[in-house]
UniProtKB/TrEMBL annotation:
Pfam family, one: LysR_substrate
Keywords: DNA-binding, Membrane, Transcription, Transcription regulation, Transmembrane, Transmembrane helix
Recorded superkingdom: Bacteria
Organism of origin: Kitasatospora paracochleata
Family annotation (PANTHER family): HCA OPERON TRANSCRIPTIONAL ACTIVATOR HCAR, TRANSCRIPTIONAL DUAL REGULATOR HCAR-RELATED
Domain HTH lysR-type residue range list: 1-58
Family named by the database record: Belongs to the LysR transcriptional regulatory family.
Gene3D superfamilies the UniProt entry points to: Periplasmic binding protein-like II (3.40.190.10), Winged helix-like DNA-binding domain superfamily/Winged helix DNA-binding domain (1.10.10.10)
Spans annotated as Disordered: 289-310
Protein name: DNA-binding transcriptional LysR family regulator
One example GO MF annotation: DNA binding
Extent of Polar residues compositional bias: 290-302
Length: 310
C-alpha cells in the first residue's frame, strides 16, 4: 500500500472530515478524496461512510486504522535508522596524481548541505594504480585520469589539464617558455614499473617502453629522480603548484594530449551516496579546474626562485 495514501486515510479518520484532513495535510480536497478512493479500490472495501458532519469509519476502516498507524510508525523508524546509518557511513575517495583536488572543499560543502552527517575520507593512491583502489574495493569513488582500462567502471569526464615537463633547474630546457614532447627524446625519463596498466604507462612515458631512466611509484619519487638522477618526465600541470621546489623547473609541453580528469566508480554500484558524491564532485571540479588553469597561465615569469610555469 502507498504510504501517502495511508497518511491521508489516517488524517481523515482522525479529523472525521475530508476538508479538515486536507487542510492538515496541505492538500486540496479532490486529490485527497482520490487517494482514499484508490485505497478503497485497492483493498476492495469501503473505509468511510459519509455522514452530515463529515466521515465515519466503517468496520473495515476501524481495522485499517490500527494497522495503518503501526505501518506509518514503522516506516518513520525505518527512515530514521537509514538516516542514522548514512550519518555513520564514511565514503572514501581515491585520488591519483592530484586529480581534482582543488575542488574538494566545494564538493564537500555541497554534499554536507544535503547530508550533514556524512563523512568523507581521502586516500592518495600510488601513481601505479590509475583506478585509485577501485579494483580492490578500497575506495568508493576515484578522482583519476585517463587513459587506463575502465572495464567494469562507470567513468564521467570532469576536466582536462595540460602536462608539463619536470626538468632539473639547471637544464637547458628549464629556461624555455615551452617545449615539444619530442625534445625529451633520448633523455633519461622516469618510468612506471612493468605491470602498470599499459595505456596509463604509455601516456606518461610518451616514449619507447625501453627508454632508460629510474622506475618510480609516486610523484615524490618522480621529483627525486629529477633532483638526484638528472631525469626528466611528464607530470600534470598542477604539479608546478603543488610540488614547487628549488632545483626543479616545470615547462609547458606541446605535442602531447592533456590529462583528462574523471570520476570513476564500479558500474554495478547502486549506492545513492556514491551518486551524490559524484554529482558534488562533477559540480565542483569544473569551475575549480578552470580557476587552476587561469592561475597556471597567469604565473609571472622568473629566472630564479621556485619552479613555475612560463
Amino acid at each position: 500500500m502507498d504510504l501517502r495514501a495511508l497518511r491521508c486515510f489516517v488524517a481523515v479518520a482522525e479529523e472525521g472530515h475530508f476538508g479538515r484532513a486536507a487542510a492538515r495535510l496541505h492538500l486540496a480536497q479532490p486529490p485527497l478524496s482520490r487517494r482514499i478512493r484508490d485505497l478503497e479500490a485497492d483493498l476492495g472495501c469501503r473505509l468511510f461512510d459519509r455522514i452530515p458532519t463529515g466521515a465515519r469509519l466503517t468496520p473495515a476502516g476501524e481495522v485499517l486504522l490500527t494497522q495503518a498507524r503501526d505501518l506509518l510508525e514503522r516506516a518513520d523508524r525505518a527512515r530514521e535508522r537509514v538516516r542514522d546509518a548514512e550519518a555513520d557511513r564514511v565514503l572514501v575517495i581515491g585520488v591519483v596524481a592530484g586529480a581534482g583536488l582543488n575542488a574538494g572543499p566545494a564538493a564537500l560543502a555541497a554534499l554536507r548541505r544535503s547530508r550533514p552527517g556524512l563523512r568523507v575520507r581521502l586516500r592518495e593512491a600510488p601513481i601505479t594504480d590509475p583506478s585509485a583502489g577501485l579494483r580492490e574495493r578500497r575506495v568508493d569513488v576515484a578522482l583519476t585520469r585517463l587513459p587506463f582500462d575502465t572495464t567494469g567502471l562507470t567513468v564521467r569526464p570532469l576536466a582536462v589539464e595540460p602536462v608539463v615537463a619536470a626538468v632539473p633547474a639547471d637544464d637547458p630546457l628549464a629556461g624555455r617558455d615551452r617545449l615539444h614532447v619530442t625534445e625529451l627524446a633520448e633523455r633519461s625519463r622516469f618510468r612506471l614499473p612493468t605491470g602498470t596498466d599499459p595505456r596509463w604507462r604509455a601516456y606518461w612515458l610518451a616514449a619507447d617502453d625501453d627508454s632508460p631512466g629510474p622506475v618510480v611509484t609516486s610523484v615524490e619519487e618522480c621529483l627525486h629522480s629529477v633532483l638526484w638522477e638528472n631525469a626528466v618526465g611528464l607530470l600534470p600541470a598542477g604539479a608546478s603548484l603543488r610540488h614547487a621546489r628549488a632545483g626543479i623547473a616545470f615547462v609547458p609541453v606541446d605535442g602531447h594530449p592533456p590529462s583528462r580528469i574523471v570520476t570513476a566508480h564500479p558500474a554495478d554500484c547502486t549506492d545513492p551516496l556514491v551518486d551524490a558524491l559524484v554529482h558534488a564532485l562533477t559540480t565542483a571540479v569544473r569551475p575549480a579546474a578552470a580557476q587552476q588553469q587561469h592561475v597556471l597561465t597567469e604565473q609571472p615569469d622568473a629566472s630564479t626562485g621556485p619552479p613555475h610555469d612560463r
